[in-house]
Amino acid sequence: MLPPILSNLRIPVVASPMFIVSGPDLVIAQCKAGIVGSFPALNAREGDGEAPLLDAWLTRIAEELDRHNQANPDRPAAPFAVNQIVHRSNARLERDIEICHRHRVPIWITSLGARVDVNQAAHDCGGIALHDVINNVFAKKAIEKGADGLIAVAAGAGGHAGPLSPFALVQEIRDWFDGPLLLSGAIATGRAVLAAQAMGADLAYIGSPFIATVEANASADYKRMIVDSGAMDIVTSSLFTGVSGNYLVPSIRAAGMDPDNLEGADPSAMNFGGNAAKAKAWSQIWGSGQGIGAVRDIVPAAVRIDRLAAEYAEAKVAICV
Fold first, then answer.
1. How many of the other CB atoms lie within 10 Å of CB of 67?
2. pTM
3. Strands (E), 29-134
4. Count of domains in the chain?
5. Which UniProt key words apply to this protein (predicted)?
6. Is residue 139 in some structural domain?
7. pLDDT tens by residue, 109-148
8. Within a domain: residue 148?
9. What is the DSSP secondary structure assignment for residue 106, as one 8-state letter?
10. Residue 15 and residue 179: Cα distance in Å, rounded?
């Protein structure tokens, strides 16, 4: 059974938090259009001695969504989520948890490790915690440590994708878990959203199609590459972050590397928030999921969500016939 905060969305979709790409403009547009918008806390970067940008982002998001809700009582915005990378290399984690707790962030998404204290912080401020997992072992650990729901990151997803088929991953989790379950992996149409539900997920978790939106914090070249590429233009590698992920082949070639001969990386070398030189070195290596063949233009996020909603409704009718 879904908690109330996830039960009244326009369509059953949570927009996934994307490195660099997801910021206040995109989150606000997604929420106003009726789906959960999200961003990684680490995207809010500030210089030494500057006030925490995350604090300002959360203030702006809350104020703009409140204004929208007051002006549109019959069409309130969906809630928003903040993603915390809980890996030990994230030097900002404790500070960012305090900021999110103070702002009473309604949905917390945790990645790269499950921690009891982070889940408790979400609960203490009235929020829920969703943890992303790539297999059933990690799923059980996350629930044991207090997560309220799971995000099954299956093969074909953008970012740190798992290797398992969505059919296998959802089935194994649903054998024992009846709580909130989201599915990620090449979902780019309303038909795919309905398919995720048919497999046993409650909601779809969608990222890459929102790179090609007006509000996304992505370069024009990145957005155009999403539009011009398809599933065959994605390669899986652990080189860039230390964790296996999916990336756009043209961006790797543009950086002077051979996408067919990429070295692996030691997962112990992962670094989030603490290695600016490494982040800069890979800044032009662009992530993407395999579903981008359905993305054919750059549009406002609201238009993309309108299309998802229309396709979802049409698919439901077609299946019921």
1. 11
2. 0.93
3. 37-40, 80-85, 107-111, 128-133
4. 1
5. Flavoprotein, FMN, Monooxygenase, Oxidoreductase
6. yes
7. 999 989 999 999 999 999 999 999 999 999 999 999 999 9
8. yes
9. S
10. 19
